[in-house]
Structure formats: structure tokens, C-alpha cells
Amino acid sequence: MRLRDTLENYLFVLPAVAIFTIFYILPFIWVFQFSFFDWDGISPAKVFIGFDNFKEILFQDPSWWRSMVNVSWITFIALTFQNALAFMLALACDREMKMKNFYRVIFFIPPVLSEMVVGMVWSFIISDVSGANIINRFLISIGLGQFAHNWLSDPNTALTTVAVIHSWKGFGWGFLLFLAGLQTIPRELYEAARVDGANAWEQFKNITIPLMIPVATMVVILTILGTMQSFVLIRGLVGGEFAGHTSVPVLRILASMQGSSRFGYACSQGITFGVLLVTISFIQNKVSQKVRQA
Amino acid sequence: MRNTGSALAGGLMVLAVMALAGCSSENSGASKRSVSVWHWMTDRQPAFEELANKYEAQTGVKVNFELYAPSDAYSQKVRAAAQGMNLPDIFGVLGEKRDFSSFIKAGHILDLTSSMDANNASWRRSFFEKALAVDEFAPENSYGIQPGVYGVPIDIMTIQMLYNKDIYKQLGFDPEKPPQTFEDFVAVGAQLKKANMQGLVSGWGEVWMIDCFANNYAFNIMGKDKVLATIRGEVPYNDPEWVKVFGLFQQMQEKGVLATGLVTMVNKTAEQLFANGKALFAFNGSWCVNVYKGMNPGLNYAAILPPKASDNFPIAIWGGAGSSFMVNARSAQKDEAVKFLQWFTAQDQQAFLSVATNNLPANKECLSQIPPILAQFAKSMDYATHPNVWGISESPAVIETLDKGLQSIMIGEMTPEKLADEVQKVKARELAKQKR
Lengths: 294, 436
Description:
The complex is a heterodimer.
Chain A: H1 2-34, E1 37-38, E2 47-48, H2 52-60, H3 62-94, H4 100-107, H5 109-112, H6 115-126, H7 134-141, H8 158-183, H9 187-195, H10 200-228, H11 232-238, H12 249-259, H13 263-293
Chain B: H1 2-24, E1 34-39, H2 45-59, E2 62-67, H3 71-83, E3 90-91, H4 97-105, H5 113-125, H6 129-133, E4 136-137, E5 148-149, E6 152-164, H7 165-170, H8 182-195, E7 198-201, H9 208-232, H10 240-254, H11 267-275, E8 279-285, H12 288-295, E9 301-304, E10 317-327, H13 334-344, H14 347-357, E11 360-361, H15 372-379, E12 384-385, H16 396-410, H17 416-435
Parallel strand pairs in B: 1-2, 7-8, 10-12
Antiparallel strand pairs in B: 3-10, 4-5, 6-8, 6-9, 6-10, 6-11
Helix pairs in contact in B: 9-10, 10-17, 11-12, 16-17
């Protein structure tokens, strides 16, 4: 009787387990398995090559490492500029101000737009040939005409331009999380601090910052994970890797899978990249824990 | 209560089994008198549907055209379906001949040779030879595929130069005499600079069109045999004639004949610029006729061959089958699928498609019925070639290095000589890999 009950219970969870296994666990196992093969993704023949794909990624593929450097720069800009902007706007909207709900909606519009659309719109905004050329016109109007140039086709500015546009697109998520975090801080703490004579800076330093660390940790992890996997925006802005200047890991994985038909190599790149992301998240989490304890 | 629980559990079990069975069955959606077609051609969907309705009215066979766009997404879907043995009755394979051959080796594509050659080869003879060549594997091909025809071209395309006659006239040139030589072509740069206008636009941010342009001039400067010898590894990429090909990109940049931002331009932007009269030249495929017509029906332009850089060999342009359909070899409806494709590529249907979508028909028997600008593209079919008919493919790593390097030349961070050395280095590495 007991066995029957147990089996019945298992039957209830079977569909969920089956779906989870088919759509999550099996693909993961296959990606791991394929990473040890030389395979074009179609042919029945797969050649086992051991760790050769990983060796090639680590020691013989400079374009992979260049893409890692590029995405690190985009991530750095996102962690600093994007999150600072998100935090400042969240602070502003947390105060009693007119039309704060309107601003909240406005700030959250960029993240819900398609990356391809954002890429094409920004390409129009900044292009001096096909678009409105707004940035260059502004620079010229304020007497900084010497800085006006083609931002996306100049190897010196292409990546940073991509990074800034990525930050514009992404700051809304950080804004929402920071705002939610700020609203959980009890107002009594600020009132008590004011009674004790703390000025605005001291309140910010001693109340807001310590209590926002858990939220900031989450925002930082999400920013890193989201930014490092970006590629659609880059395609929309510059069409692809632009002589390697805007190359990022996901574009490299796509190039291996579709351009070169090296499915096995693409799987190895995906695994390498995944391990890196997990490691970064782990380190970030540990550092945050230490900061909180301190 | 217990009985209800058991019944519910049993029901869920049945549903789970059905779901699992659905994941692995092939052609699960195909009923006996229907044919499913997967494609990526957004602009042609209404015309396809109209033809499908006509076919159903004539034969009683329902044809479902399922659109999956953009082409990247389509390509991924077809690959995933191939891995899951879940391809439709008719589909297209995007990519290089290598990808096409992988599908054939995996048993996904039906050999159509016998159908093509039946009735005194009437189906085969209805197509442009160069269009069919893209879907054909010659004897002793390097892909190890049994010789034969494995696809049906539904239209053809050529990729060539276009010029805006009105802008050309504004610059002081005779609009009926476009540049014939590369020197004439780059000389226009000076006039463009004076008039503060844009020269050549193309989707060179997406790189494959750069490769196409470079190949046109490689054929012109050194001839087909030497290009193919390079791919085989018998001629190095740092041969002076290859350096000359790469140098053309430097010349175009220096003389100001390239539009600003060309290296990061996507083809859609290039098409908008040319259609709106903001650029003098475009390098684009014959599909652009439909695009330009939609954007600016009054655009006054003409198609020309890329101006030759050498008298040694004729210029070549990429051309052949624009889009092709393949029949799923494992489909239960494969005979029905072949019959539909025979009807679909017959003269009347091809003429209808050409007029409705402004694409060049694959069926040569209906050329007299196509618009004049398409006829200009069609005339250039004699100069057409395509990597898919060379019988040998260059390594993707080499192509990528070459394309990115050409972008680097155009932004002034690499010389043609340095690119030649870099490409040769990658080529040597790839050859060594092949030998292993």
C-alpha cells in the first residue's frame, strides 16, 4: 500500500521531471558531450578528439581572447556607468518628487525594447551618413566640432560606443532593483539619524550603502551575466565583429556554429564561457559576503 | 478519492508519453494529402501562399508554407530539426556547399537526379544551367557526395554594382556611361568629395559581401584557376596578385569612393541609402530590385558589372541559384513534394513569382516576361560564378581572417601586404590540420 502511494506520488511529478530532463538536463549533457568531438552539427559522423577543442580555445584562438577582452570592457562600463546611473536615478525616484511614477515608467522603457531595434535606432541617432547625426551636430553646436566623427566605424570608439548604448539599454533593470531595495529601508532609521544630527551624506554612507549591499550584489551579478552574453545589440549597431573590434564571445560561438560549421568547437566555447561566468559569479558572491561581514 | 488520483496520474502519464512521442516522431504534422514547406523569405510569403492555393485548387494537395525569419533563425531551426529528424517535406539549406553536403551525408536530402532526367530531362532543361549547378554535385566532388542534383532552384540572383544615374549626372558624368575600369571608378571619388556625397554602399559590416567583392576581383586579376589553386593550397595568399586584390580596398578608401561608415554598415542601411538617393554606387544582389521598388519606386538606377581592374581575365560576379528547395529524403510525402516542386518551377508559376516578388526566375523559359531592370541582372548571368560550384571550399577560418582583414585595410589599420601574410599564416595552419 505504501509502495503504491509512493509510486502514485512519483507519477504526479513525472511530467515535470520529464520536461525538465528533456529541455534542461539532456541539452546540457549533450553540449558537454559534443565539446569533445569534431562535428559539424549535421553529419552522422562525429570524431572524438578529447580535449583538443579546449586546447585550441585556450592556446591557439586569439580571436576568442580578443572577444573576452572586448566583453570585459563592455562589462566594466556597464558595472560603473550603467549601475551608477541606475542607482542615482533610483535614489532620485525614491524621494518625494512630482511625477515619480512617470519617471519610473520612462526609465524602464529601454530594457523592454528589442536589442535589435535599439541597435538600429541608435545607429540612426549617431550615424552621420544614414541617420540624424544628433551627437555630432550637438558637438559642433557647442564648439566641440573636432570630436565629431563616425563613432561606430572608428576602431578607437566603436567598442566604447557599443558599451555606452548597452548601458543605456540596460540601466532600467538596475534602476528597478535599486528602487525596490531603497524602498525596503525603514524610514525610521533616517529619522533617528536625523535626530542624532546626521547630515544627508552621513545618512547615505551609514544607512543607505550598508543596507543596499545585498541588492547591489544581485545587480552586479545580473549585470555581469547579462552584459557578457550580449551580442544582438552589436549586430544591430555594427553588423557583427567589425574587424574584431566589437567581437564578443557569443558572436564567436555563433561564428563557430554557423559560419564555420564547427558545432563541437562551439560547444567547447560555450562550456569555457559558462565556466568563466559561474566562476565570476562565485567570486563576486564571496567578495560581497566579505564586504557585508566587514 | 484514491481512484480519482490514480486516474489523474494515469492521464498525466499518457500525456507525458504523448509529448515525448511527439518530440521524436518525424513529419508528425503531415497528413496524407498535404506538403509542408519551411522557408525564410519574408517578402515572398504572400506569393507562395497564392501559388499554394492555386495548387490545392488544381490537385487537392494542400501546401503549407511556413515562414521562419530572419534567415539566421531559420538556419538554426533547420539544423535543430535535422538533428531531431523532424524536418518538413520541403525545406531550404542556407550556408555553404559544405553545409549542404552535410545534410546529404546525413540522409536528409533526396537525390532528385532521376526526376530531373525523366521525360528527356525536361525539368532539368527548364532551368538556367548555372542555377542548377549550385544544387548539383559533380563526379569526384571533394565533398564525397554521390554525383547528382539535390535541390531545386526557385529563383536566381547575381550580386553586382548599381549606380544612381541622377547622381552620376549631377557629378558631371554621362549617366549612360558608367565607369568601365577600376581607375575610372575610384576617380569618381574626387568628384564625390567635392560634392560632399557618398560613394559605394553595401552590407560590408556583415562581411560576406566583402568576400564576394574580393573574389570578383581575384577572378579578374588572376583568373579562376589560380583562385582555386590558392584554395587547394598550391598558391600562397601572399602572392603579389592577391596583394593587388587586397590593395584595391586600400585604393577605394584612399580615393574616397567608399561611403563613410561602410565597414560597419548592414545591408539594410545600405539599401536605404541607395534607394533614397544618398549614395552613388551600391554593391548588392538582384533581390534589391524588390527592396528599392518598395522604398523608392522612382529611383533611376542601373546594374553594371564591377569595373574591371585588369585585362588579364574577365570579371566574375557571384550568381546562380538565389534560393533552392530540397526534399526531405525521409518524408512520407516525398513523391508529392517532388510533384509540387515540378509544378512550382514550371514557366507560369515562375513568371508569376518573378513579377510578384521582383526576383529573377530560375526557369529560363519565362525571361521574356520579367521587368527590364531584372533583365539587366539576368544578362550578367554569363559572368556568374559561385563558391558552391567550384567543387572545393575555402576554410572558414581563412575566409574570416580575410574578411576581417579587408575591414582593417579600409579603416587604415592594416596594409595589403600584412593581410596577405596573416591570411597565409592561417591557411598554412588549416592545411596542416587537414593533413593530420
